[in-house]
Write a structure and sequence with these properties.
The chain has a 10-stranded mixed β-sheet, sandwiched between helices. The chain is globular and about 70 Å long. The protein contains 9 helices and 10 strands. By secondary structure, the chain is of the alpha/beta class. The protein has 2 domains: 151 residues, HUPs (Rossmann fold, 3-Layer(aba) Sandwich), CATH 3.40.50; 118 residues, Rossmann fold (3-Layer(aba) Sandwich).
């Protein structure tokens, strides 16, 4: 079961949608959602390398504290209202018995807060990065590359999802990345009503074929079927397209990094999924 989901929020307008996705998953698993407000530290907002008179520095710090306080109050009120709409219990008395939530404030840069809090979560839920506004890329990368936990990437949605994790596809090519995704997401697969293994029929070698994966999942009490997709260079596009055709509400896949020294750049297929996904994707690294 998924017991704890982290949802990092700040005043960027994306928190409502991410929380709605997390709530849909939480209701399925009776999970607790920890909504973490990443409160900026005033000293981090000071101009770097610029000499500022002391009186002006104090004024900037004071105003920064006031703005942060107002943002926190606004977010708390917003979370309370939204939790009611999403039927998340905030009382703290039903943890483990129903979908619950709590609000936590943590000072610091969002990437640092995610790194710390995320390591003690079963899943971290974040917004799909916005390429046009250049928002969310660092958040996703910090969650994926520095927490060691699965990351639920939530696309923009006009309406919150009614269910999540009911019909699931898992990308499989026999690699260590896909094996790690499988290992970390067994709870999601076990709770799903339908599981499809997506394979192009050629990537996985002997001992790691899609049929052998289905047999392995059966040992864990997880029935699954193999669905083939077209072998091409556009693997990310094919994975998303086949998942949508099947009516899946979540794609599970391993995420690849392209940098050998520091994993901060997504591999080609992963980047395609991150850029173009219109469905929730559970990424693992």
């Amino acid at each position: 079961m998924i017991h704890k989901i982290i949802v990092p929020v700040r005043g960027d307008g994306k928190g409502d949608n991410v929380l709605a996705h997390a709530a849909a998953l939480a209701h399925r698993h009776k999970s607790h959602i920890e909504i973490v407000h990443c409160r900026p530290r005033p000293e981090d907002l000071m101009p770097y390398g610029v000499a500022i008179p002391e009186f002006l520095r104090k004024q900037i710090l004071k105003q920064s504290y006031q703005v942060a306080d107002m943002e926190e109050i606004g977010l708390r009120d917003e979370v309370t209202v939204l939790a009611g709409k999403l039927k998340l219990d905030l009382s703290g008395t039903k943890i483990g018995k129903a979908a619950t939530a709590s609000f936590v404030e943590e000072a610091g840069r969002q990437v640092d807060v995610i790194k710390r809090h995320g390591r003690l979560a079963d899943i971290i839920a974040v917004a799909k990065p916005d390429r046009d506004r250049n928002l969310g890329h660092n958040t996703l990368k910090a969650a994926l590359f520095q927490s060691g936990r699965p990351v639920l990437m939530c696309p923009p949605a006009a309406e919150p999802p009614a269910t999540l994790g009911e019909k699931v596809t898992i990308a499989w090519n026999g690699s260590a990345e896909s094996a790690r995704a499988l290992a970390q997401c067994k709870s999601v697969l076990r709770a799903a009503k339908t599981v499809w293994v997506l394979s192009n029929g050629s990537d996985a070698g002997p001992g790691t074929s899609a049929d052998e994966l289905v047999a392995y999942l059966a040992l864990h009490g997880i029935p699954a079927t193999v669905e083939l997709f077209k072998a091409s260079r556009k693997v990310g596009t094919e994975l998303l397209g086949r998942s949508m055709e099947l009516g899946a509400d979540m794609l599970i896949m391993g995420a690849y990094g392209d940098s050998h020294e520091r994993e901060t750049v997504f591999g080609g297929n992963t980047q395609t999924v991150v850029d173009t996904a219109k469905m929730p994707v559970l990424l693992n690294h």
